[in-house]
Design goal:
Strand order of the largest sheet: 1-2-3-4-5-7-6
Strand content: 35-45%
Largest sheet: 7 strands, mixed
Number of strands: 7
CATH superfamily: Gcn5-related N-acetyltransferase (GNAT)
CATH class: Alpha Beta
Helix content: 25-40%
CATH architecture: 3-Layer(aba) Sandwich
Structural class: alpha+beta
Length: about 140
């Protein structure tokens, strides 16, 4: 299995991130398009390629609260192969260690982030029609 994770710097690659997110969030999870495609110009996306095909994506962006990790998506047929873990590790490698990192995890994915050192804060809330929980990574 040849998996490559790369930061996105070209428009053609950014469009591939949209394709993955469209399949996962809009088609599969029924997230409204206008909510899914927010903050595109201020985000730093990444793509996961498996055998040359785009199969996953994630991004980070600066907010008033710190660095927010978001839009982790892996195509259904490629889940449970370590792709999300590799995406997360690559993003964390690229970010400055002293920065405050957080995310809004879907509650169904909270255990994944906990396994990677994130801690929950507060109560679950609804975002884009799905239950989420705020999580922080202290490094």
């Amino acid at each position: 299995m040849k998996l490559i994770i790369k930061g996105v710097h070209q428009i053609s690659d950014r469009e591939l991130t949209y394709m993955v997110r469209e399949k996962v969030f809009i088609e599969e999870q029924k997230v409204p398009r206008d909510i899914e495609f927010e903050y595109e110009d201020e985000s730093h996306p990444y793509l996961a390629f498996l055998e040359g095909e785009p199969v996953g994506t994630a991004r980070w962006r600066k907010t008033a609260e710190g660095i927010k990790l978001e839009r982790f998506a892996v195509l259904k047929e490629h889940r449970n192969k370590g792709i999300a873990t590799r995406l997360l590790k690559r993003i964390l490698e690229d970010l400055e260690p002293e920065k405050k990192l957080y995310l809004h995890a879907q509650t169904s994915a909270a255990a994944f982030y906990t396994k990677h050192g994130f801690e929950t804060k507060g109560e679950p809330f609804t975002e884009a029609g799905l239950e989420h929980i705020k999580m922080y990574l202290h490094r």
